[in-house]
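We treat protein structure as text, and this decision shapes the records that our systems exchange. Because each token names a local backbone shape, the row as a whole describes the fold. For reference, a complete record is included directly beneath this paragraph.
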Amino acid sequence: MKKIIEQLKQIVSSENVLSELEERYVYALDATNKQNIENLPDAVVFVETVEHVQQIMRLAYANNISVIARGAGTNLVGACIVKAGGIVLNFSKMNKILEINQENLTARVQSGVIVGDLQSEVEKSGLFYPPDPSNLKVSTIGGSVGLSSGGPRTFKYGSTKDYIIDLKVVLADGRIINTGSNTAKNSTGYHLSQLFIGSEGTLGIVVEALVKLIPKPEGSKVILAYFDKISDATHAVNVILENKLMPATLDIMDKKTLQTVEKFSPAGLLTDKDAALFLEVDGYLASLDYQQNKVVELCQRCGAVEVKFSKNEEDAQKIWTARRSAFGACAKLKPNVVAEDIVVPREKIAELVEGVRKICEKNNLLVCIMGHIGDGNIHPNIPLDLNDENDVKNYGQAKDEIHQLAIDLGGTLSGEHGIGCEKSKYMTNAIDDVTLEYMKKIKKVFDEKNILNPQKIFFSER
């Protein structure tokens, strides 16, 4: 490996290669709460160009060395955890917005571009990039593509997968493919972009993306509606949609989450209600009052005990700051927080929430439930102490039961966080044998030596 490290330094320069033990330690982890380091990467390489990535992949391919692509390392399923040593490719220096094309409504970006930075930059031109993972201030385009990230706006605008026009991908042997074209419409052959989106770096290394933009809505308003029962909140969502309204976001928090967030970041939230809907309406300024008033009326008709709405941008930001701080707030309850990600048909949300509560209560665990009720994507945040053997044992049992509950209710394992190594053991429960067989065949076609982020998504021996 010493010879390999010297070759890496020749490719990218010495300052872009980390090989000391202390330097490599942090890159063996991601935001997943893993206590035990199974392996350290042999080297961490900061790439700056597509050619760097190509040369490194050729070197890795020739020497059967694993390669793990890394953006901000914020994912929550162990997609960046190092399982077999190898090379971690850090994309933080490949962070250029290469082009914003107002006429074509597109932006071409490198993988290390931060999602929030892209949003801010295109909005200067009156454009809009809707995908908004909660950690958008640090999460990268490459990571968003790898995990098919979503966020609160997915309900109306779609997720990352709906905004990718073309990807430039370096394959395991260093060759390059483009998965799409420069055009908004393309029915020329297979739609390979969708194959790489959500593949967690197991099929190829995404180095550039051409993303779709849309005109920025003129304005928005935020509405906060409280309910005494989660089932009433779910019913309100259905009634809103039946009345042909399409809020930009439809999120929910349960009582425990409201209480925890209010202690952590006081925003005047009511903490004695079973659930709160966080809704945002957007569009032309002339339509906002109508949309807001109609949503308020429908929520009240469905049993909302109190409804508040933003009067200005400051009010709106205060509400959304509270919503986005939910995960951090849970860290005040215990030393660690595990954020789960399950998705069910919207009609099953009340059943899912009650089921998760019962599972956690049975296993002596706290749980704060929030999520994107518009698309059925629920996030149980479970505060615990990973140094406490009972907590770890109880969480392991609860985790199995929670994912099986989602499957039993007609849902699946993840709406936006992915599978990584944390959920791989559930894949045989969620996906039929033939589908799983063909997923493995696809992996073999693109990565015959199994060097790209090995042992992720489904169990695979090197």
Summary: Residues 261 and 323 are 8 Å apart (CA to CA). The mean pLDDT is 94.
